[in-house]
Specification:
The chain folds into 2 domains: 135 residues, Rossmann fold (3-Layer(aba) Sandwich), CATH 3.40.50.2300; 69 residues, Orthogonal Bundle (Arc Repressor Mutant, subunit A), CATH 1.10.10. 36% of the residues are buried. It is built from 11 helices and 5 strands, in the order E-H-E-H-E-H-E-H-E-H-H-H-H-H-H-H. By secondary structure, it is an alpha/beta fold. The termini are far apart. A 5-stranded parallel sheet has the order 2-1-3-4-5, sandwiched between helices. Helix 3 runs parallel beside helix 4.
């Protein structure tokens, strides 16, 4: 018996682009498109009906933009992983989406195989961010916040290994890469990330990376 396919909702106001992506996704054995929306309002309404596992949201849409829709979707389908898609690496939208707790942020110029890999990463509870955006995201966080020591209760709650793992998360490493760096299994990394997020009351890795940067707990630089 084959495993269930990840259910995906697409929201983009360009029908040609949206349908092309939908066709490519439906060719994958482990994922399927269960709904398409033209704008954020439709995405929110449709998500409540189809209950997707993954929601791919265009940032710029009429009626309701993707970032606003992401905030609504977090309330109506809290279990869904939200991945933003955009043609520009706009700092304001990027930070706004991160603060809402979206699970990924990708540029539309990525190769289809990269998109599929990012969707699978989200299903593994990782937070896919386009490589070109990782440095911009962390740089923007550093510019807009003043690093201060983490609250003692939060920092003390994390084990040494959990903090070590979160530092590597903030450097943009995947679970597999962190496992190789620390000589531990990918499953062990995932457990450490999950436990750290639970202790910090956070939803995903992007929020954890932001916390590490804001608290001045990042990997020491030479």
């Amino acid at each position: 018996m084959s495993e269930a396919r990840s259910r995906i909702l697409l929201a983009d106001d360009l029908p040609l682009f949206r349908r092309a992506i939908a066709a490519l996704i439906d060719e994958q054995d482990d994922m399927e498109v269960v709904g398409e929306a033209d704008n954020g309002v439709e995405a929110v309404e449709l998500a409540q009906v189809v209950r997707p596992d993954i929601i791919l949201l265009d940032v710029e849409m009429p009626v309701m933009d993707g970032v606003t829709a992401a905030g609504r979707l977090r309330d109506v389908v809290p279990g869904a992983k939200i991945i933003m898609l955009t043609v520009v690496d706009d700092d304001e939208h990027l930070l706004g989406a991160v603060r809402l707790g979206v699970h990924g942020y990708l540029l539309k110029d990525l190769h289809p195989d990269e998109l599929f890999a990012m969707i699978r990463a989200a299903m593994r509870d990782e937070s896919p961010v386009a490589p070109s955006l990782v440095g911009k995201l962390l740089g923007a966080l550093r510019d807009t916040t003043t690093p201060t020591p983490a609250p003692v209760a939060e920092e003390a709650a994390l084990s040494v290994r959990e903090l070590e793992v979160l530092r590597l998360v903030s450097d943009g490493l995947s679970n597999k890469e962190i496992g190789v760096t620390l000589s531990i299994t990918e499953g062990t990394v995932k457990n450490h990330v999950h436990n750290a997020l639970t202790k910090l009351g956070m939803d995903n890795r992007i929020q954890a990376a932001a916390y590490i940067v804001r608290a001045g707990l990042g990997t020491p630089r030479a």
